[in-house]
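Re: Re: ligand-bound prediction request (bumping)

Still looking for help on this. To restate: I need the protein modeled with zinc ion bound, output as structure tokens. Inputs repeated here so nobody has to scroll up.
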Amino acid sequence: MCGHVRRGDDMQSPGLVTTVLGRSLRLRCPRCGEGKFLEHGFTNRRDCRICRLRFEREEGYWTGAIYVNLITTQFLIIGGVFMLMFGTDLGLWTQISLLAAVGVIFPVCFYPFSKSIWLGMDYFFTGATWAQSPSEKDSPPLDSRS
Ligand SMILES: [Zn+2]
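Reply:
Sorry for the wait, this slipped through. Here it is.
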């Protein structure tokens, strides 16, 4: 039995925020928490292999993930500026070089997580209203098969 959250179940309860965020950070399906989000490398699966939740909802769906990535990177850089400015004796150009490297490397590594977080946010706020996708209608969740 997986931790499947059904449509209509108190979708916006405070406990569900941490549950869905935790699942997103572990790159798991926001609905069941068991299905893997990534197929391989940075490529995400089309849907959850366990509960059949469709991950890519529509064309251009991952645009929101770019904002998640951008905002997270900006907070990291701003925090890094203050940490380096007040917590180290590094020279200005060394600090700028470090932060520039973080600004280039972090968003690339964080991209799969930003997509998973975006999916989790979308599922948290609007999941109760998601109509079943054709792939969900064709095959029931694995936990209901017997
Ligand atoms: Zn799932």
